[in-house]
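Team,

Forwarding the record for the chain on the shared tracking sheet. I've put the sequence and predicted structure together so nobody has to dig through attachments.
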Amino acid sequence: MTRQFRVAVVQTLSSLGAWEENIDAAGAQVRSLARHGSRIIVLPELFATGYDLGTGIQELAEVVPGRTSRALTALAVETGTVLVTAIALRLPGGGISDSSLVVGPGGLLAIGHKRFLWAGEKTVFTPGADSGLVVQTPFGTVGVVICYEAGFPEAVRDLARRGAEIVAVPSAFGHVRLHVWKLLTRSRALENGVVVAAAGLTGQCGDGPRFAGHSVIVDPRGRTIIEMDERVGAVSAAVASQAILEARDEVPYLRDLDRLGGITDINERNRYVRSAIR
């Protein structure tokens, strides 16, 4: 049976350390989206605390349950939605991670940890042991990668092969690489027959870099359904599970990859360069 639901992305201008202001602004967007039928809503990476690696992110890190997870869980319960974001998480053994957080109408659903860290993140965050998160929700199966991780085709393909229909990408993508953002969001959707819902920060946070904005929802054929500019706000799009199945039948990347045994197996069989035929 075909399932239909609305997916949304929220784009925020977050102020460093202004937790209540950031949460309230995002909450207003979520409530408005929910009133208009959105059920899976993606929020930017570190939107609650702000993203500035050089200014106190260690002090802003939190635990789960903590104030952000509690606030978002309460919001998800209130609005009947699934919310996806990434937070600075304080680890039990010390250190902090850039961690995906998924909450729904029934409470906390899952936590994952960003494995592939971008540039200066490597000096701040502890990388996760696993790549990506796949979560069954009341509205569809959601895979999550965080920002830079979407640049790894293998990471998103792993989510699709594990059953993801929608790939959520909470992000703080730099404006200087906006052309990359536009390319990789469409590519990951096309390659895997998934809906990509990528939510980014916009503007600047403290003395940090300028963020790209341009939060986007891409269909499973790699076509942009709706894309924002650099203004704060939110957009949504209707998604049908049947459209995902049809896209995968039309261009069967996943099925052919499985049928042929996978790229790794092929490369192992032909790992050495062979001499030219004369």
